Amino acid sequence: MKKLIQTVLILLPVALTATGCDFFRMLAGRPTSAQIAAMAEAIRLEESARIADSLRKALTDTTPVQVAAEPQEVPAAAVPQVAVTPAPAPAAPTDDLKRFYIVMASFGKVANARNYASSLEAKGYPATILKRGGYQVVAVCGTDDEAAVKQSFDEIRRQDFCPQGVWIIDRKGQ
Length: 174
What we know:
5 helices, 5-stranded antiparallel sheet, 2 domains, single chain, about 45% helix
């Protein structure tokens, strides 16, 4: 009997080192390390597919955003009293956006995009705000000429106010 106990006590650590914790996980009804690795890979692939789909949607949505000026408070005494006639209905908006732009930054809030666009305009770069996905993209140097936008891109990259992640957007996706 003593020999049997000694044999079991010797074989138990050997069996544990040979099988690891997977044996006990399997006994407890838990996933083994191979199953855990397979689940982690499936989650990683699903996340990669979700990110790729999100990027695809963001790259195809280039709806322009009309940015209205911030309302300013004017004293009542400064407002002239004139008769107001209704203006004619505005014509349907046209897509006057260019094909290429240099993207300076993107923001989740329109107010932040407006502030940044104002600072770029103060530096002499008229800014356009485009809607891409759920973001407001502040872009400058709109043109339909690819060579011109590349030249402008090189010029802007040399400016001290240029962010590191500046890039060129092709709205037509070609």
